[in-house]
Write a structure and sequence with these properties.
The structure holds two protein chains of two kinds. Chain A folds into five domains: 4-103, Rossmann fold (3-Layer(aba) Sandwich), CATH 3.40.50; 141-201, ATP-grasp fold, A domain (Dna Ligase, domain 1), CATH 3.30.1490.20; 203-331, D-amino Acid Aminotransferase, Chain A, domain 1 (2-Layer Sandwich); 339-452, ATP-grasp fold, B domain (D-amino Acid Aminotransferase, Chain A, domain 1, 2-Layer Sandwich), CATH 3.30.470; 460-494, no CATH class. In chain A, 39% of the residues lie in helices and 23% in strands. Chain A has helices at 11-24, 40-44, 63-72, 89-98, 107-114, 116-125, 141-151, 174-192, 249-265, 297-304, 308-316, 396-409, 419-427, 429-433, 440-451, 457-479, 485-494; strands at 4-7, 27-33, 47-52, 77-79, 101-102, 155-159, 169-171, 197-201, 207-215, 221-233, 236-242, 270-278, 284-290, 333-340, 342-343, 349-350, 353-354, 357-359, 366-370, 377-378, 385-393, 411-413. Chain B folds into two domains: 2-90, Glycoprotein, Type 4 Pilin (2-Layer Sandwich); 98-165, OB fold (Dihydrolipoamide Acetyltransferase, E2P). Chain B contains one helix and 16 strands. Chain B has an eight-stranded antiparallel barrel. A four-stranded antiparallel β-sheet of chain B has the order 9-16-14-11, with no helix packed on it. Chain B has a four-stranded antiparallel β-sheet with strand order 13-12-10-15, with no helix packed on it. In chain B, a hairpin with a 2-residue loop joins β4 and β5 (44-49). The two termini of chain B are 36 Å apart. Classes of the chains: A alpha+beta, B mainly beta.
Chain lengths: 503, 166
């Protein structure tokens, strides 16, 4: 095992990695930017080094500086966390060259899985199902008809140069194909001055389900079951759970098998995640592989009992995985809610600022992976994640009830957070029934919320009225000449029960 | 004290009377509510309504309130009677003039308009970046850009005046 490693990250994930290191007796080196001097990762680490000004491009993303500190501090390995340099093959190359072990896959595996087309080709060769269609543009109209019929309607026409929904057309049946193709092409032409389109099977009511895998350099692979990540806003995951209500033991085993095949094809080492789309008939299609620790990894840890960060360290140090596939058990149910410094009532507007007070939830089955504390100022320069609240319950019903309970205990003041949003989702009928897909938050949830009548608006007005009443009185007292307030207020309160002292 | 609350379109009359230590009688539209209220943690109040326990996080900007109770955000305005009357008389003639302010601390990435330029309601006028996200701020009114208070690249605080449309 390593004696000392450097953690090239900040916030909750740096804290998460530090915790594993401390429990394993591995010394830690933190790096920090000028705004992060007070941050937890600096204080929890054995040593910490300043790497530059606040913008990530001048600090957490500067490969030279991080390598220099790793060498100076004699760190044998670097854990990149997620984000920043975690999936940067140039950083992986540099670590290989400098003989510092990067805790993650090789630069080769990163490159293979980093390019969507290469990943698709690699996994397809390994027999992994992908969304049927073409990747290359189709020139002839007859060709479009032929392929559409081959993969079956509905299909999606997509501009090769596309993005942001432009040049995209959903075609439900053959009769619509000709006119849709014309529209997609003209839209693509005007938006990207390139009218080439390709065709893909349209996945109805798609759910995003991913499989956690672990691999070592001795050729051992395990999968640690699935995570259901369909609760997304603007294509970003906000709530994850394991297991997924739609995954049967048979599908789980099949998905696990193809995820391991994909990883094996890329000669993968360490922790990785294969993302899949699952359609309404529970067919699954490979989307992409993430070559790093995922934000939502704690739910897997809660249901399998495997510490993913410790396994990452073990395999990076050349050891074998500590578990075999037959040892993997998925027990109970775990849910994660990502708490962001954002205003859910204003379209998730970022709200950086000072955390003026904090009360974290506790009690049975609750885990709070946080990077903040009371008095911490959330900087404007980085991801607005505050913490990940994770709960475990013996089944999904208990997990939802527990999450709601924990969210109600969670108080963060000074900044707006997504806690109220999560409370609402935990109370939503469709969520409770497990009936949702990746469009749920944007298309269903907010519509239902708009129509909902709020309870206890009288209590809200009462609280505000008392606050303004007391503020006005305080202001009036302050304006009175000195010496006149004391005796008067003493007399006023002297006969009231429960009074100890005034002033 | 007497206050006027505005919830949506509706105006309500609110009266607060202190009836003991941390005990209040709050009357809303003629209905009395007896509560025991303590500010327990920063902006968070513990309220015993009768014996029913509530926690309310009271956020305030000027006279606008956002009160969070069990995941529900209640938005309304509240001010005392005299102030409301004053606002009413002063409010006339102010229509058509609007300050664009930064809703969060961040960096001015781009100015989309110049002084003197005509803008329409909901037209984007400035882009402010915070936490890797660019946010386009819009003009609330139709008019002319009267003054711009910031430069591109400038770091601004929450609530900072960015530009004035008149």
């Amino acid at each position: 095992m390593f004696k000392k490693i450097l953690i090239a990250n900040r916030g909750e994930i740096a804290v998460r990695v530090l915790r594993a290191c401390q429990e394993m007796g591995v010394k830690t080196v933190a790096v920090y930017s000028e705004v992060d001097r007070h941050a937890l990762h600096v204080r929890y680490a054995d040593e910490a080094h300043l790497i530059g000004p606040p913008p990530a491009a001048e600090s957490y993303l500067v490969i030279d500086k991080i390598i220099e500190i790793a060498k100076k501090s004699k760190a044998e390995a670097i854990h990149p966390g997620y984000g920043f340099l975690a999936e940067n093959p140039r950083f992986a190359d540099r670590c290989e060259k400098e003989k510092i072990k990067l805790i993650g896959p090789s630069a080769h595996a990163m490159r293979t899985m980093g390019s969507k087309t290469v990943a698709r080709r690699t996994v397809q060769a390994a027999g992994v199902p992908i969304v049927p269609g073409t990747i290359d543009p189709i020139a002839e109209e007859e060709e479009v008809f032929r392929i559409a019929k081959e993969i079956g309607f509905p299909v999606m026409l997509k501009a090769t140069a596309g993005g942001g929904g432009k040049g995209m057309r959903l075609v439900r049946e053959e009769g619509e194909l000709r006119s849709s193709l014309r529209m997609a092409k003209s839209e693509a032409k005007s938006a990207f001055s390139d009218d080439s389109v390709y065709i893909e099977k349209y996945i109805e009511q798609p759910r995003h389900v991913e499989i956690q895998i672990l691999g070592d350099r001795h050729g051992n692979f395990v999968h640690l079951c699935e995570r259901e990540c369909s609760i997304q806003r603007r294509h970003q995951k906000v709530i994850e759970e394991s297991p997924s209500v739609i995954i049967t033991p048979e599908i789980r085993a099949a998905m696990g098998k193809v995820a391991i095949e994909a990883a094996r094809a890329a000669k993968y080492e360490g922790a990785g995640t294969c993302e899949f789309l699952v359609d309404k008939d529970r067919n699954f299609y490979f989307l992409e592989m993430n070559t790093r620790l995922q934000v939502e990894h704690p739910i897997t840890e809660m249901v399998t009992g495997v510490d993913l960060v410790k396994e990452q360290l073990r395999v990076a140090a050349g050891e074998k995985l500590s578990i075999r596939q037959e040892d993997v058990r998925q027990t109970g149910h775990a849910i994660e809610c990502r708490v962001y410094a954002e205003d859910p009532d204003r379209n998730f507007f970022p709200c950086p600022g000072l955390i003026t007070s904090l009360r974290t939830p506790g009690g049975p089955g609750v885990r709070d992976d946080s990077g903040v504390f009371e008095g911490f100022e959330i900087p404007i320069y980085y991801d607005p994640i505050i913490s990940k609240l994770v709960v475990w319950g013996k089944n999904r019903t208990e997990a939802i009830a527990r999450m709601k309970r924990a969210l109600n205990e969670y108080v963060i003041t000074g900044v707006k957070t997504t806690i109220p949003f999560h409370i609402r989702v935990m109370s939503n009928r469709h969520f409770i029934e497990g009936n949702f897909d990746t469009n749920f938050i944007d298309k269903v949830f907010f519509k239902e919320e708009e129509e909902r009548r709020l309870e206890h608006d009288d209590v809200a007005v009462i609280a505000a009225a008392i606050q303004v009443f007391l503020e006005e009185r305080k202001r009036a007292m302050a304006q009175k000449p000195a010496g006149t307030t004391g005796p008067e207020s003493m007399w006023k309160y002297s006969t009231r029960p429960g009074m100890r002292k005034i002033g | 004290m007497n206050y006027i609350g505005t919830i949506g379109e509706k105006e309500v009359k609110v009266t607060v009377l202190e009836v003991g230590i941390a005990r209040y009688k709050v009357t809303i539209e003629g209905k009395d509510h007896l509560v025991d209220a303590h500010q327990v943690q920063d902006s968070v109040w513990s309220i015993l309504y009768g014996s029913t326990s509530f926690e309310a996080d009271v956020q305030k900007r000027d006279d606008e309130y956002e009160v969070l109770i069990a995941g529900d955000c209640h938005k309304f305005s509240l001010m005392n009677e005299q102030r409301k009357a004053l606002m009413r008389s002063a409010g006339k003639g102010a229509a058509g003039k609007a300050m664009v302010a930064s809703p969060m601390p961040g960096k001015v990435v781009k100015l989309l308009v110049e002084v003197g330029e005509e803008v329409k309601t909901d037209q984007g006028v400035i882009v402010v970046e915070a936490m890797k996200m660019e946010n386009e701020l819009k003009s609330a009114v139709t008019g002319k850009v009267k003054e711009i208070f910031v430069k591109e690249g400038e770091v601004v605080e929450s609530g900072a005046k960015l530009l004035l449309v008149e």
